[in-house]
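Example record

The entry below shows one chain as it appears in the dataset: sequence first, then structure tokens.
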Amino acid sequence: MLSGIYQVRLATSDGQFSEGQWVLKEQHLNGNDHNARYQGRLLLSGEHVAVRLDVQRNPEAEHTLFGPASHYLLSLNGHLMRDSNNFTLSGPIEQVPGMFATLSGHWVGSLD
């Protein structure tokens, strides 16, 4: 998976979403929106991708996409389309039973 800038969409099973540009460098994924900061490390095995995404609510925000808690963990799994450097991952939100998240993105440019 190429290091660089990715256009990312993070959506929840209840219809909320956030879009923005995230950075992937040496398998570390970092992004943010108005309400939260997202950090994780991608694990690649062939075309399978997994990430444990740490979500920290921004101090000035009342809630994130997932609720009012200050911290959430997402365990996401999915696939990388190597020919286009697109990825799609999904999985549960540990602190919110029954809610799932989907993270999708595509490469838009290098970090240089």
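Notes for this example: DSSP finds no helices and eight strands in the chain. The mean pLDDT is 92.
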